[in-house]
Amino acid sequence: MKKFVLDEIDHQILDVLIENARTPFTDIAKKLLVSAGTIHVRVKKMEDEGIIQGSTLTLNYEKMGYSFIAHVGVFLEKSSMTQKVIEALRQIPNITVAYVTAGKYNIFCKVRARDTGNAKDIIYMIDDINGVSRTETMISLEESINDKKRMMHAIFKEL
Fold first, then answer.
1. Cβ atoms 32, 78 nearer than 8 A
2. For residues 110 and 95, is the Cβ–Cβ distance under 8 A?
3. Domains in the chain, please, with CATH?
4. Tens-digit pLDDT profile for residues 31-67
């Protein structure tokens, strides 16, 4: 597969959009001293190449009362049950991320809850899923790194 080549303008566009995907192209153009048409064409090209895939909205769950975060490692009775368990996990809205993993756990989840009692109820729901043999939970004390830009900047340094 041919690697799509990005230049410094593309890098700067991505830098702005990672910070706020809703930034108008005209604002990006003014900041980068290029035309809005240039921004539009470059963003469209990056979308067509699959570099940009949609845009996201970041919610502040703490302000909505869901400040408790737990990470739950899920052990399965059989690895062949992975997809059925993932489908069951999708039915629990408090599970915001789930990874199929190799290593200690079969599946690793991020859970958002109101408090420890709510987290306990969610963990019990996970335990009750057919195919789950047990879980192991870690409580998050603080999210220290959540940086979408560092990896992109590292990639551009390699180019």
1. no
2. yes
3. 8-57 (1.10.10.10), 61-140 (3.30.70.920)
4. 999 999 999 999 999 999 999 998 888 889 999 999 9
